[in-house]
Amino acid sequence: MSSLSENPADLDRADALGEVVIRAEAYRNWGRWGADDRLGTLNFIDERKRVEAAQLVALGRAVSLGQPFDEDGPQRGWKKRNNPVHTMTGTGLDHERHPYRFSHGIGGADDMIVMPLQCSTQWDGLGHIFDRGMAYNGRKAGDVVTTEGDLVTGIEHAAATIVSRGVLLDMGRFLRPETGELEDGYAITVEDLDACVEHQGETSRVGRGDILLVRTGQLARARRDGWGEYAGGPAPGLSITTAGWLHRTEIAAVATDTWGFEVRPNEFDDSFQPLHQIVIPNMGLTVGEMWDLEELGAVCAETRRYEFLLSAAPLPVTGAVGSPLNPIALL
After folding, report:
1. What's the confidence (pLDDT) of residue 1?
2. Mean pLDDT estimate for the chain
């Protein structure tokens, strides 16, 4: 076992459970904000932090960080995660055929969408991942999430919370300046994160209450070459050895431009998303995936400013364990 080494070379690839357990216990936030807490590390965002973040708006430029929600998305059907199905329930043609359904000739269009809540740009809520039978804050998984939804930490509790200082660490541009894209399977380390902060400068310092965005460049590659295995296949991402860094920086949330946030294939011979298992149910960290960080990366590189006001509210779907969203960065 590697203890709490932050060097991926020290990991015991044959002992995923041992590596998870030692980090889960070391970085666990159960009880930190009380027995009834529903927000985890989102508690790091307070009014003072939002005032600080609002003062970062200098250009008035708004950048959407959401991917499109349509049938051309990346999903391949794993766990019934399909791409959105958009259906019109009222059209202009309907109106033309019956223009005087109302006496004064008014008409309109309506539509509906059917989709998994985590099929495109989204947050993983605290009820999304369990660790050995337990959910966040030491609750039994079966007491938290039932067929009625997440009865305790449903995503609706974060509806007015996730507005804070955002920080972009553009790992793709920093580590691969010639392409701006990390190769699939690249494990981002603590050393990489710290070096990127130093390279980008003071505006990329990461601290309490910040929302960290990590650009790998994989989304740009998928758009150029086709989705391929973007959804669930090999990808650059954070190493399990970054768990301590995520804990001690006291960030409120983290999001990436990849399907799964952490490096894939995972760093063990037999495992599935072990970093999720540490940071969501133990640390209480809200995780975002499939964010579009391409325009933001270009703007930050141009202005050499990597901090901004970030508004990333989930839809208040009662009892949901995740939520689609359209995050907005204001620079």
Report:
1. 46
2. 97
Tokens of 234: 């090999």
Q: Helices marked H in the chain — which ranges?
A: 16-26, 47-54, 92-97, 141-144, 171-175, 190-200, 218-225, 243-248, 274-278, 294-303
CA distance 282 to 30: 7
Third-level CATH fold of 8-78+116-330: Glucose Oxidase; domain 1 (3.50.30)
> How much is the pLDDT for 3?
82
**Burial class of residue 66, CB neighbours in 10 A (0-12, 13-18, 19+):** middle
Torsion angle in degrees (nearest 10) through CA of 172, 176, 181, 186: -80
Cα atoms in the 13 Å half-sphere on the side-chain side of 274: 26
Beta bridge partners of 37: none
Residues near 106 by beta carbon (within 8 Å), at least 6 away in sequence: none
Q: Where are the domains of the chain?
A: 8-78+116-330, 87-114
Residue 276 CB-half CA count within 13 A: 23
Residue 128 CB neighbour total at 10 angstroms: 24
Are 253 and 204 contacting, i.e. CB atoms less than 8 angstroms apart?
A: no
For residue 282, what is the DSSP state? I
Paired sense of beta strands 110-114 and 85-90, if any: antiparallel
pLDDT at 201 over 60: yes
Q: For the chain, list the strands marked E by DSSP.
A: 62-64, 85-90, 110-114, 122-124, 134-135, 139-140, 145-146, 149-150, 163-170, 187-188, 211-215, 237-238, 253-256, 286-289, 307-311, 322-324, 328-330
